[in-house]
Fold:
Amino acid sequence: MSKILWADDEIDLLKPHIMFLKAKGYEVATCCSGADALSMVEDTPYDLIILDENMPGLSGLETLQRIKLSAPHIPVIMITKSEEENIMDQAVGSKIADYLIKPVNPSQILSSIKKNLHSSRLESENTANAYRRDFQRIASLINNCDTLGDWMELYRALTRWELRLSGSDSAMDELLDMQRTEAEGLFARFVARNYESWVTAPTSSPERPLMSPDIFRRRLFPMLDDREKVFFILIDNFRLDQWEAVKPLLADSFTMREELYCSILPTATQYARNAIFSGLMPIDISRMFPALWVDEDSEEGKNLNESPLIATQFERYRRKCRFSYTKIYDSPGCDKLVRELSNLLDNDLNVVVINFIDMLSHARTESLMIRELASSDAAYRSITESWFRHSPALDLFRAIAARGWKIILTTDHGTTRVDRPLKVVGDRNTNTALRYKVGKSLDYPRKEVYEIKHPAAMGLPSPNVSSTYIFANRRDFFAYPNNYNHYVQYYTGTFQHGGISMQEMLIPLITLTPKDQ
Structure:
């Protein structure tokens, strides 16, 4: 039974209201002054407090402020005869739970109590019921996806439900996970049937979806042609659900045009991000700019040549563009960029790569503490939102908006949480990635993977003449038979990329326009 304290100097006149609440199952204690309310709060753990604003002695506002010092967790509903804006402002500034104007009827009081004491339970029940009603529609979408646009619609729907259900206590999230697992399996088959036609189609063909090499030409160049000043910000490993988590933080500063595009395979930085910046498939980068391509077996970092690759794309299309390139690894680096933003105002384009989420995913694999903090997709989103809210990255976005620049916000690939190992055998030159392998004489379960035996035809370079690429689907990851159990235990539950899943391949692409434009 919820305990409620009601403080009002005319409490005797409120007996019908109090009897109504007691009939609804609430335990209601009363007092006639702010001082008595404070004393009672010290002695009893109330679930909610109702305060009259206009009491003799300590006013309702003064009582509210003292309650918030001693018991800030207790929601307080204030009732007042006054509609003066400054009183409302003071109440809201003191984190009031609700504000009601006299005369109030019992139903108004009950509604406010339910909103503050039972909203989580009611919302959870309503969300679960809404998902039950939508279950068949989702099932129909899963079984009838014929185009990549259909899969994008399904992915958005699944992600929206994942976000809504993650805060509920219902068992519906398990049912949703079953639907997502089914969808990921069918999506992998869809990609296997269609990927070759996508990457081999001319870039102007309607059969080709928007893919990694097309982003600059089809989204950025038109903005530059219109003489827009643009920041292109790429957050590594940035999934759709993570975008939805940080989106409210940008809503005050920007209007948003949201879409998804398709990452090339492998969904890994060396391939997908370099394809974005160069406007080329990986095999073309390796052929046309061998000095800028880093092979799988190289000790050199795989993303060291991004600025030169951007320059090659502008040169190839004979476009004059003054641009900067900045890679941010930590908060001091982001702080520095915010401070020096005025130095970039003469550029047509400023490219920024933010590596926090990539570092988070690697840290989660290697650190037991980070594994505990990001033990699920919901926790992974929460850390992303908390980082963005409290880091200079949010300051950067707001500073850009204040100067009237547009932003294209995207990523090169997403990640997926893996939990099913597949045994693969390769020689010592086989790469170490968990969601894709490239090598010769690979031994693997052929029915469980997507294989590319002729990489050149799919826009991929071949480290050897007989190289084969294989890609993990769904939540699978590749494990070597040697020390298999340790390997499986270490990587199960980690976030990986490189393979085929909606989370890795269907990428948020957001155009942010400052609201004052």
User: Anything to note?
Assistant: The chain has a mean pLDDT of 90. Residues 172-200 form the longest helix (29 residues). The CA atoms of residues 50 and 317 lie 68 Å apart. The longest strand covers residues 254-262.
